[in-house]
Every structure is written in C-alpha cells, then in structure tokens.
Amino acid sequence: MYILAIETTGAFASVALAQTGEAGDCQILARVAGHDRYSHLQNLTPQIQQVLCDAGVLIDDLSAIAVANGPGSFTGIRIGVSTARALSQVKGIPCIPVSSLEALAMRADVAPGILVCPILDARRSQVYGAGYLQGEEVVAAGPYTIDEFMDLAAGYGEIYMMGDGVDTCGGKIGEIRAGGVSFAPEEIRYQRADEVAAIGVRKYLAGEGVTFDQLEPEYMRMAEAERKLRAKQAEENVHG
C-alpha cells in the first residue's frame, strides 16, 4: 500500500511517499522538500512527480492521499487541499486530513513528561498552537495570543517549542517564562511531509479517510480579507 503525503502549510512545501505493510509499519520510500519560500503553486506538482519517479511507483498504485489541512499559511493550505482533492477525485482514492500541529509535534524527540508545543505564526501577535504530552493533545489546538498560550502551558514543568511561531515570538516567550522552556533547532523546527505520511498511514488503516468533496481546510480563523469584509458588512448593517 502506498500513501502520498503533502505538506504545504509552512514556508517550504514537501512531499513524501510512504509504504505500509500488513503490520501497519510505515516506511518512507522517497521525499522531496522545496527550498523556495512560498512557491508551492509552482513546485508542488513537480515534487509529486519526483517522489513517484524516485520510488518507481505509478500514480495509479496509490491507495490514498494524506495532506496537512492546517492550520498554517492560508494560501499554502488551499494549494495542498486543492491538489489532494484533484488527485483523489481523478484516481478515486480517499483523502486523509492531517493536523499540521500534530504532525509537527511528531518531529520532537524528548523525554517523557516534557510538553511538546508546536506554534505557528498567525500574525497580529497570534499563533496557532497545541500542546502534546507523549503524543496526547493536552492543550487544545487553536488560535491564541502568545500570552494566552503560555498561560495554558504554565502548569507543565518543561516545555519544548517548535514551529515558525518560535521565530516570531521567541523573545516574548523568554520574557513570559524565564526557565523550563527550550526551542527546537532549525533542522527539526518546521513542518515536513514525512510525519504527515506516518499519521496518514495510521488514519488510513483506522478507516479515517474521506472522499475528495469531504476534505476541508482547517484555517482556525478567518482570512484577513474575509475578516475585514465581515466587519464592513456589520458596520453597514448597523448604519442601515
């Protein structure tokens, strides 16, 4: 069984191809990551072609498409979800939505008892964040100010922070919490398709695939343009 995994929620798109056996083990056969920031539209299709070619697998051999459906870059999410939908519809195979936060947290190699906190830059002094303790989500995934998120993580002795929210909010985090916090090094700080593939395999075997028209993006908040439009409409309604 082959599962194609797509990760476009961050600055650099990546694609991986996983094979799983009867025991549910996941082996990454091929992977490719982009080096141009937010060039997903131009690079994603060639990346998919490359991993299939590198693994010697035909697109008709795929069993499912796993895709990070958010949160993260709104444009990136749309590109990844749209591509997964198209492949799913054309090939008649299921999509598997994967949380970008959950997948990112899988990259952490920490001791038991350390809270893994993936945080993604949501702009306007906000992050999309969650907290995972030994793989279990204990701080609910959602949009937060960095102060709100750090309040939720305050009850944990040691926290390990990942994602591009570290880049934008690292200084503020240091002001809020002087000790008991560490940051992932850059080589494992950001999203990657390998973990999307691993979660995709698990969910596929559990029967959690969806049809192309059931796959939805998880933005966690409105886009800036939509927010402004709704505010304008509300103001117009008030004034008549």
How big is the Rg?
19 Å
CATH superfamily grouping of the largest domain? ATPase, nucleotide binding domain
CATH topology of the largest domain: Nucleotidyltransferase, domain 5
CATH architecture of the largest domain: 2-Layer Sandwich
The coarse silhouette is globular
Query: Poorly predicted ranges (pLDDT <50, ≥5 residues)?
Result: none
Integer tally of domains: 2
Order of helices and strands: EEEHEHEHEEEHEHEHHH
Please state the average pLDDT score: 92
What share of the residues lie within helices?
25-40%
Count of helix runs? 8
What is the terminal separation in angstroms? 59 Å
User: Structural class from helices and strands?
Assistant: alpha/beta
Strand order of the largest sheet: 3-2-1-4-5
Give the strand content.
Answer: 25-35%
The main β sheet shows up as: 5 strands, mixed
Strands, total number: 10
CATH class of the largest domain: Alpha Beta
Can you describe this structure in just a few lines?
Helices cover 38% and strands 28% of the residues. The protein is of the alpha/beta class. A 5-stranded mixed beta sheet has the order 3-2-1-4-5, with helices on both faces. It has a 5-stranded mixed beta sheet with strand order 8-7-6-9-10.
Describe what this molecule looks like in 3D.
Helix 2 links the parallel strand 4 (62-68) and strand 5. It is globular, with a radius of gyration of 19 Å. The chain has helices spanning 40-55, 74-91, 100-105, 146-152, 165-176, 186-189, 193-205, 224-238, and strands at 2-7, 14-20, 26-33, 62-68, 95-98, 115-123, 126-133, 136-145, 159-162, 181-183. The protein has 240 residues and is of the alpha/beta class. The chain has eight helices and ten strands. The strands form two sheets. A five-stranded mixed beta sheet has the order 3-2-1-4-5, sandwiched between helices. It has a five-stranded mixed beta sheet with strand order 8-7-6-9-10. The chain folds into two domains: 2-101 and 192-220, ATPase, nucleotide binding domain (Nucleotidyltransferase, domain 5); 109-189, Nucleotidyltransferase, domain 5. Helices cover 38% and strands 28% of the residues.
